[in-house]
Amino acid sequence: MTLWGKSRDELHKRIYSQKPIRSWEGQPAHMYGEVIHSSLVSLYNRYTQETSEHFLVLFSFHLLILSLDHTQQDFIYGGVLPLSGLNVQTVSLDPDMSLSSPHVFEISGPMVDSKVFICDSAAALHTWVQQIEDRRHEATAQPMSPSHCSLSYLLPCDMRWKREELLKYLVKAPIWQWEGSPVQHMGQPEYISVVNVIDSHRQGCQERLMVLFPQDVLLLSVDNNRVNMTYEGRLPRHSIRAVERSALPGRLQFELMGELVEPLQVSCLCLDDYQNWMFHLQQPDRSSHVTVSPAPPPILPKLHRSRKESQEPMISADQCHINGRS
After folding, report:
1. Are 11 and 38 in contact (CB under 8 A)?
2. Of 226, 283, 292, 297, which has fewest CB within 10 angstroms of its CB?
3. 3-class state of residue 102 by DSSP
4. Chain centroid, CA 113 distance in Å
């Protein structure tokens, strides 16, 4: 296969090189590891029934989608999808459509809009489906190494660009043991930081990712290798408030309190995080206000688990729920 007069290996070197791909987001391409397979395919739009040429690149745990600018002989970033959250299958297009290629496969997932790709031969179709399936099973069955995972690259989120990329990553990455409505139905995430949490039972300090959504505060744990996120609970913003405990350097603490929530002591790692959380969550005492009909009970954080247990990586997708789907 050649593209713009370049071999597949030359194209791989170009993707790996320091020259940024147009509209690129997130960690550098070389952080995704070795290229397993790549080729030209056509992306089919079910609504317009049009096709556009793309270059697909399969890494050990991710699928990179690149569109093409033939005029400039340049790649344009189209997204990176984690294989652990994907399903792949061969499909047939409707016979009354203008395009009737038999070499078609579809990728889909809880956090991914369905995408239909057209290959130029049966052999190319078989290779893509088999390679994605093989890598997907491996990605699900064993933990990724940190060098293959965006999460390890973005934590700690101590820079603004890391925080912004982590919010993007959050809504498309697998979240283990998810409960309730899918994360994409929670609205646009507004803020995220690493905090330390102590529950009312004082079972030790537990590191958490705390994420602010329009209606909820989401709590996630991250395994020791920084490759897997696990759901730990969500708190409805309308029923909690932050009460200041200490704003001293090294003790940036507040307490989350509510009628239906066990008090949680939260320690921030920096003053900016502390000020942001206090600004968003510090609400006046509403106990003297007119009583309204009670809201449904929140899904309480699963803080009874030990730190060690909460940080163990999940190794089997069929043993847990991911992002609201089995």
Report:
1. yes
2. 292
3. coil
4. 14
Out of 106, 141, 176, a domain closes at: 141
| DSSP state at residue 322 | B
CA angle, 37 then 43 then 46, to 5°: 145
Q: Are residues 119 and 261 in the same domain?
A: no
In this structure, are 194 and 276 located in the same domain?
Answer: yes
How many angstroms separate the first and last alpha carbons of the chain? 39
215: left (phi over 0), alpha (psi -120 to 50) or beta: alpha
> Into how many domains does the chain fold?
2
In a domain, 150, yes or no: no
Among candidate residues 258, 261, 85, the one with its CA nearest the CA of residue 182: 85
**For residue range 29-72, what is the model confidence (pLDDT) as tens digits?**
877 888 999 999 999 988 888 999 999 999 988 999 999 999 99
One domain, residues 275 and 196? yes
Residues 169 and 312 in one domain: yes
Q: Give the number of residues written for the chain.
A: 326
Of residues 127, 128, 124, the one with CA closest to residue 115? 128
pLDDT digits (tens, 9 = 90+) for 162-199: 888 888 888 777 788 888 878 888 999 999 999 999 87
User: pLDDT tens digit string along 89-145?
Assistant: 999 876 555 555 689 999 987 667 889 999 999 999 999 999 999 988 877 665 554
Phi/psi at 16 (5° precision): -75, -20
Contact 53, 68 (CB under 8 A): yes
326 within some domain: no
Is the domain of 178 the same as that of 290? yes
Residue 25 domain boundaries: 2-141
- What amino acid is encoded at 133 in this protein? E
